[in-house]
Design a protein that fits this description.
This protein has 238 residues and is mainly alpha-helical. The chain has helices at residues 2-7, 9-34, 41-55, 60-66, 68-72, 74-80, 82-87, 89-94, 96-121, 125-132, 138-147, 152-176, 182-201, 206-235. Helix 13 (182-201) crosses helix 14. The longest helix is centred in the last third of the chain and has 30 residues, at 206-235. It is globular.
């Protein structure tokens, strides 16, 4: 039945969009009712969609073309993340030096630690490059990985993994280590877990969303500017 629906372009688009949204919302309802952090709607939805595509022998290309509307909504969704940022713009401008310094240090540590540990344990340069860029938003990380001869497939996988891990474990871990400030939590999640983490903490408060969005943007810019120099230097040491 699903395969037949996908043969009709209009029906397939309606079916793909509605079923994907319904699956996501259903998971979100269960997550709220069960208060289960591991029931991350985006993660569960992806796993369920993969299982359905394999079960019905539907290619990803067919599903992707049918769900084009959801993909088109990504751009305004990203722009929407800028609204809470605008709401806290006055406070952010007063702290911009400290924020940039913290994010600069965080990006440096993320790149260096990931590259060095990967080289010591695995010894593969392309994988080390891929993993060193795991905390940056996908388009920027893949572009940089390609320029530095990194494994872009592993880069994409590592980004998704970092995003989901930060979204699932980040908030409770920060509370556990007594980091209670919404600003600090937002900056930490945005810097480490990019868009997926930002979308998750946006449900907590507008302040979380604002600082996480800021960290996502600034960390991406810092990484894009510094990672080629840092990685090329580290490569000479191995």
């Amino acid at each position: 039945m699903i395969t037949e629906l996908l043969n009709n372009h209009i029906l397939s688009s309606i079916f793909a969009v509605v079923s994907t949204i319904a699956l996501f919302q259903l998971t979100a309802v269960f997550q709220r009712k069960l208060n289960a952090i591991w029931l991350q709607p985006m993660l569960i939805s992806i796993l369920a969609i993969i299982a359905i595509l394999l079960w019905q022998d539907i290619s990803f290309e067919s599903y992707f073309s049918s769900s084009w509307l959801l993909n088109a909504l990504l751009e305004p969704a990203v722009v929407a993340l800028g609204f809470p940022l605008y709401q806290h713009l006055e406070t952010i401008t007063k702290q911009w030096k400290s924020i940039i310094l913290v994010l600069l240090f965080g990006a440096f540590i993320a790149i260096v630690s990931s590259f060095v540990i990967t080289m010591l344990l695995i010894g593969d340069y392309s994988i080390a490059v891929a993993l060193s860029l795991k905390s940056v938003t996908t388009p920027i990380a893949i572009a940089i990985a390609g320029q530095l001869d990194g494994n872009t497939a592993i880069t994409a996988f590592a980004i998704i993994l970092a995003g989901f891990f930060g979204a699932l474990v980040g908030p409770p871990w920060l509370r556990f280590i007594k980091v209670k400030s919404p600003k600090a939590q937002g900056l930490a999640i945005g810097a480490a877990s990019h868009a997926i983490g930002t979308a998750t903490v946006s449900n907590i408060s507008y302040e979380h969303a604002a600082y996480s969005s800021l960290a996502l943007i600034v960390s991406a810019v810092i990484t894009a500017l510094l990672s080629p120099f840092i990685i090329n230097f580290l490569a000479t040491l191995f």
